[in-house]
Design goal:
Blueprint (H helix, E strand, L loop, with lengths): L16 E14 L6 H5 L2 H8 L5 E3 L4 E5 L3 E3 L3 E13 L5 E11 L2 H4 L2 E14 L2 E15 L9 H55 L4
Antiparallel strand pairs: 1-8, 2-3, 3-5, 4-5, 5-6, 6-7, 7-8
Length: 213
């Protein structure tokens, strides 16, 4: 007599891929110094140092920087720290561009292996009605395969939480940009004036000692 084995269907839950996005724009009035701000913006290394937390930044080369974001908390379940490698460069007109080249999530290995982050941004000087403004926009996108403990969480809740988290990251960068970039520009311009003032008398003295004609 043969025993019939009843086969039970095993339900396999589909992988839960999700996408989060955020954008942030900025427009800052600039009090132009004797050296126009477009000259300052041609030095992206100084700009990054001005707005980034020095303890969370490593300069890898002339145009590449590794930035650690502050630890983030997702639904009080996962705590992690994103790290991104950014390429930052400037054009002759002073426009500064940035884009992500690599990323890593520290703290949750499952997410790190299934995570994609993209950052793109632009900052440029713009004149309007005789005044100078710094205008810019940054876009942040994350694609991730969520870990199983989050599969039963309604997608709208996940999307709202994730989008809000990215928005908070961009807002933090914007706040540092507004509060620190213009201040650093004024410091840089004043230092340039002082250097030129020191050089000018030396040149005058040299000419007086060695008259020509």
């Amino acid at each position: 007599m043969q025993t019939k084995i009843k086969k039970t269907a095993v339900r396999v839950l589909p992988l839960m891929n999700i996408r989060f996005t955020a954008s942030e724009s900025v427009k800052i009035a600039v009090e132009e110094q004797s050296v126009p701000i477009r000259h300052y913006l041609r030095q992206p290394q100084r700009l990054v140092r001005a707005i980034a937390n020095q303890k969370l930044m490593d300069q890898l080369s002339e145009s590449y920087f590794r930035l650690k974001m502050r630890p983030l908390n997702f639904l009080d379940i996962y705590h992690f720290q994103p790290t991104v490698v950014l390429k930052v460069w400037s054009a002759p007109d002073g426009t500064v561009y940035l884009q992500s080249e690599d990323c890593e999530i520290r703290g949750v290995e499952y997410i790190n292996d299934r995570f994609f982050l993209k950052v793109q941004g632009r900052l440029f000087p713009q004149e309007h009605n005789g005044k100078t403004y710094l205008q810019g926009k940054a876009d942040l996108e994350v694609k991730v395969e969520l870990p199983p403990p989050l599969w039963l969480t309604p997608r709208p809740i996940l999307e709202t939480t994730g989008n809000g988290l990215l928005k908070s990251v961009l807002l933090r960068i914007k706040q540092r940009l507004v509060s620190q970039l213009i201040e650093d520009y004024h410091l840089w311009a004043n230092n340039n004036i002082q250097e030129e003032t020191k050089i000018a008398p030396a040149k005058t003295l040299s000419t007086a000692k060695n008259p020509t004609g």
